Amino acid sequence: MLLEAIYHRPKSNWAYAYDERTIHLRLRSKRDDVERAALIVGDKYAWDRTVEEIPMTKWISDSLFDYWHVSVQPPLRRMKYAFRLEAGNEAVWFVETGISNEEPKDSIKMFDFPFLNPADVFTPPAWVKDAAFYQIFPERFANGDPGNDPVAVEPWGGEPTPKNYFGGDLQGVIDHLDHLSELGVNAIYFNPIFKATTNHKYDTADYMTVDPHFGTNETLKQLVKACHERGIRVLLDAVFNHCGHTFPPFLDVKEKGADSRYADWFHVREWPLDVKDGIPTYDTFAYEPIMPKLNTEHPEVKEYLLNVARYWIEEMDIDGWRLDVANEVDHRFWREFRDVVKKAKPDAYILGEIMHDSMPWLMGDQFDAVMNYPLTNIINEFAAKKERDGASFANALGALLASYPQQANEAAFNLLGSHDTVRLLTLCDEDKQRMKLATLLQFTLTGTPCVYYGDEIGLTGGYDPGCRKCMEWDEAKQDRELFAFFRQVIALRKQYEALRTGDLTFLFAQENDMRLAYERSLGSDRLIVAANAGAEADTLALPVTSRHWRDLLTEEDLIADNGELHLCLPANGFRLLLAQS
């Protein structure tokens, strides 16, 4: 065994409380190196009377490592533990002080899980793992009230630019809730709706007021109420890393300089405020002079923003916040933010925009989830861009799932496109079959899927501003067959809990092969997703224990022969199969 590859660390994603009684433990070893792993566990105050050995399961793998898993429910919610690893006739024991060929005589040097305190359990809202989100960019979704249109509004459906307006508003969303109900989504994520000077509204001028071009605070209250009556949750965008250049405290600083009472609300490196060679003399989002960064360590800034977070939940009954540029705000602020939000609504969803390793924010004291851009890349590079083979897909997904606690994976915000990316159909070179393949993977993997508005009816578009075009409401110009597919996969995910929280096992994933198959299982339900991202039709033989299967997408019945299920997969084809017996 390669001892250098063996790894475990208490707490974080390697040892964590899944619920108030259950502890999950993980262990890493070199891929295909360890044949068996077991947990040696007992109560530290009564070791000799409580010690037991529990086999571990090889849970998932990546290109370098295997990840072993075991679930434990210690009677007194505390435990000392060690691992025994075996390969052939070799056995080693792994304790906190290192790896030894000798079995430990007692628990003194073992790993310690001191106590499972309920307050420390990372508990994302239960409803999130059952949700299917729909992202709406308000200015481009629907114009329901021409009376609040901007002065220079353009005819609906024109070419989007970074600065033009088409009159989309909240009333337009209310008018088209039937579309969302028909699609089957049960949660909406809105890009910013507060008063600002741009069409995207990420330059907030007033955090307490809905932008007049979108409606009023009362319009939002009506929208949230209408959504809740349909079983649809509402998530708003919180831009707390930075404000806009017309935010009154920033205007005061521009006018009075260092003498402004708000001078410390911002990070000013040099007075007066200026832009030199394209770089502002004050910290901003990126290098945007119109988006000055807020000093969230300042007591008054903190009080102001936390009041904003509380207000929209208590007054409008929203169901959570998506946090823009969340990784650039201090952790202490987010901890206080969580306390405020969860006090106002215990099952509110706190979603951070982070595109890299997010474990520091997912310890249970800050966010419930992050926008899962790593999964976005894995799926799109396999199904849309053809840059990954099946083995690479499985390895990357294995590494991603092993990076976080199970409950974080279950609540992760899984998207294939957004207001910041090329639209999915465009990424697929307008090949609808590739888009469907990517979408099926998205809706059958662990996490909470999100559809970007218009993807379900075939909208195309490149990077911003192309991805922010107007929604098409003329059904004659919509791809209704594509809509029916989205509706079907959303319904199937809702119908089978195994697709939301079931175990995931890869059945087929090889190098230089664009075929892929994995199983999702929970209780008696077993479902197989089989995919062929290749440019040619191919067949796939999978070892199975059930003889009878049904394709849930086509309602075709299939029979396994001698423990093998033979599947015909067209180019960019896929199957979603349910074991019948």
From TrEMBL:
Coiled coil stretches, renumbered? none
A Pfam family annotated for this UniProt entry: Alpha-amylase
The family assignment reads: Belongs to the glycosyl hydrolase 13 family.
Q: Which UniProt keywords apply?
A: Glycosidase, Hydrolase
Q: Which GO terms describe its molecular function?
A: hydrolase activity, hydrolyzing O-glycosyl compounds
Tell me which InterPro entries the record gives: GH, GH13_cat_dom, Glyco_hydro_13_lg-like_dom, Glyco_hydro_b, Ig-like_fold, Malt_amylase-like_C, O16G_dom_2
Q: Which organism is it from?
A: Paenibacillus elgii
Its name, as the record gives it, is Alpha-glycosidase
User: Among the record's GO biological process terms, what is one?
Assistant: carbohydrate metabolic process
- The UniProt record lists the Glycosyl hydrolase family 13 catalytic domain at 135-493
